[in-house]
Each structure stands twice: as structure tokens, then as C-alpha cells.
Amino acid sequence: MSTYKIPGMIDPHVHLRGLDWSHKGTFASETAAALAGGYWAVLDMPNTHPSTIDRPALDRKLAEMGAQAVSDWGIYFGAAASENWRFYDDIIGDVCGLKIYNNATTGTLLIDDQSVRDQHYRAWPGNKNIAVHAEGETVLEILALVRKYRKHTHFCHISTADEIRYLTDAKNEGLPISIGVCPHHLYLTQDDLATLGPLGLMKPELKTKADLQALWDALESGVVDVVESDHAPHTLDEKFSGKPTYGVPGLETTLPLLCLAVHEGRLTMERVVDLVANNPRRIFGLACPPETYTLVDTAESFTIERGNLHTLCGWSPFEGMQVYGKVRSVTIRGEQVYDGEKILISNGFGQNLYG
Ligand code: NCD
Ligand code: ZN
Ligand code: ZN
């Protein structure tokens, strides 16, 4: 038998959509994709429509997620260019952390003024994480704020050798940071754009083979703390509209791609469990609920096909790849919620982990 038991898998970086973007994905469809991918819980980013940057938008997301989610969940609050730090004391009890967008991407939350970033860092109360989208030299600008305020910062979707070097130095300096990388940056490069076309467009963009190798080296050495999907569904119509939308789905392919790495001898299964479960739970301050685990058959191989996906967008940049690791079952708080094919519980079963 090659069934492996993973305690409480959590993806701390997803864009479930819902609200006014429910044509891309709903909280029901995308948390179903999370369960099918083996996850107990997901943390949802604030660049939705409306953006999660004030009390009414947060309340609307809390209500819709509460009614629909089949996995457990948390919600990020978003830093806005408007002075929304005045809401922080009011919303802190309901959210998993703060997200700051420091480079352009999907949505309207870009903050490129360092003095505005500084005010958000200064105002953020307590010790919940600040998660940042920061690419290239922007990483150094954020590190200056971490050095100044010592507030724990998670660097999302790190994708280059340079960024790994900056962050390795910062860890050696003792700064309170953690590092996430995404499967698409581990398995795809800019050379794949010729075949993927718009399905290979995301932020940060696909990089070179040397960057990809630096990410694998950092995974193996332990510098990287988390593998996060950055699950960001867009419809095929939007992808091929001629006006590029950035983002790819990933909740259902992350664990199989990591099991492929185990099969190829690049990672151990123990390391995979740290990257998708133990480390993200610890970094985001969560204990594994009792009787909450995933059973995955690490020896079974299969081909990624769009027909087998639960995500509403119905495609994957990894279609046609042969991977390992079939999710056999997910159990949350003693209740089996997924049997390898079907979702076994009703919408609204999922709980807010920060409520
Ligand atoms: C994300 C999205 O579409 O919401 N897109 C992406 O390319 N990753 C936003 C983000 O993570 O920057
Ligand atoms: Zn991002
Ligand atoms: Zn993202």
C-alpha cells in the first residue's frame, strides 16, 4: 500500500473569486476544488470584486463564504491606496492577515508608494501575517519595512534566483519572514509560452530555466517554507479574449505535482507534508483540528485532464502532464468530506478559522 496520511493541508494563497466575479469561480466551486486537491483549508486573497478593503466588502465576503464554502477558510484584508488602515482595529478579529500588492497584477490594489506601504506596516495591529506580492527589487523595499517594524511577512509566489538570494540573506539576518513558491514556477518556464499561449500568463510571469533551478535548490535546502497554488481562475473566454488576464488555477494539481517530485527523487514525502501542511499551519497560527487529514495514494499516476477538474474555469496549464498522487479521501473534524470523486457535505460546512 502506498497510501500516505497528511494532517490538515492548507493553501495560504488562493483567489476563489465569488461575489461579482462568480463567473470565474464561486466559493462553493473553488472550495470543492480545494477538497479535490486534498486541502482542509484555504486563505482567500482580497483582490476580489468588490475588493476586501472595508467593512461592507468584508461582511459581504464573510456571509457568502460562510454560506457556500465546503472547506475551512480564512479571508485576507487588503491594504488600499486610500487610507484604509483606520479600519484595521475593527476588522482584525475576522481576518487571517493583511495583503499588500506592491507590483501590478489582477485587481486595483497596487501600492507603489513606499511611504504609503510604511503607514500600512506601522498600523497593522497584533501578530497576524502581512502577505506581500513583491517582485524583483521590490522585495528589498519590503524587507526594509520588515527590518523597521519586525512584523511577520510572508513573501508570496517567489519566482527568481535574485529574489531567493535577497530572502536567504534576510533569513540569515534573522528577519521574521517566510517564503512561498508556486508549482507553475517549479514546472514551467517562459519557453512553455509558445505552446501554452494565454494559459501560461500569470503574475509573477514564467521565468528562465536558471530561475526554476534556483527555486528547486531553495526547496531542497529548506529556504522555502510553503508551496502555495496561487489558484487564480479566469474563464477560457477571458484568457483568449486578446486582452490578457493573469492567473492560473492550481488547487487540484499542486499535491500531484509535488508527489511527482517525490517519485523523481527530488523531494521526500516528509518535506512535501511540511510544505503544504505543517509549515503553512504554523506560519498562519493554526492548529490542525482533531481528525483532520488527507489520504493520498502516492504510487498511483494519472494524466491531468480538464474533464476531471472541479474548478469552475475548467482548464489547467498542466493539462497532459503525467503526475503521481491520487487524493483518496479528505476528512475534516471527523467527517469524511471527499471520497476521491464526490463532495460529501453541503455548502456552508466549512468554517472561518479566524472567526
Ligand atoms: C492573481 C489573480 O488573478 O487574482 N493573478 C496572478 O497572475 N497570480 C493575482 C496575483 O496573485 O497577483
Ligand atoms: Zn500576487
Ligand atoms: Zn495571488
Q: What report would you give on this structure?
A:
- Helix content is 32%, strand content 19%.
- The protein has a domain at 11-250: Alpha-Beta Barrel (TIM Barrel).
- The termini are far apart.
- Strands 2-3-4-5-6-7-8-9 form an eight-stranded parallel beta sheet.
- The chain contains twelve helices and twelve strands.
- Helix 1 links the parallel strand 2 (10-14) and strand 3.
- The chain is α/β, with parallel strands linked by helices and 355 residues long.
- Bound molecules: N-carbamoyl-L-aspartate and zinc ion (2 copies).
- One zinc ion is lined by residues 105, 133, 156-157, 203.
What integer is the average pLDDT? 98
Identify low-pLDDT runs. Answer: none
Structural class: alpha/beta
What is the CATH-assigned architecture of the domain at 11-250? Alpha-Beta Barrel
Cα(first) to Cα(last) distance is 39 Å
Order of helices and strands: EEHEHEHEHEHEHEHHHEHHHEEE
CATH class value of the domain at 11-250: Alpha Beta
Strand content: 15-25%
- CATH homologous superfamily annotation of the domain at 11-250: Metal-dependent hydrolases
Helix content: 25-40%
Largest beta-sheet details: 8 strands, parallel
Strand order of the largest sheet: 2-3-4-5-6-7-8-9
Shape: globular
Total E-strand runs = 12
Oligomeric status: single chain
Question: What is the CATH topology descriptor of the domain at 11-250?
Answer: TIM Barrel
Query: Using only CA atoms, what is the Rg?
Result: 19 Å
Number of helices: 12
Small molecules bound: N-carbamoyl-L-aspartate, zinc ion
Provide a concise account of the structure shown:
The chain is α/β, with parallel strands linked by helices. Helices cover 32% and strands 19% of the residues. α4 (114-123) links the parallel β5 and β6.
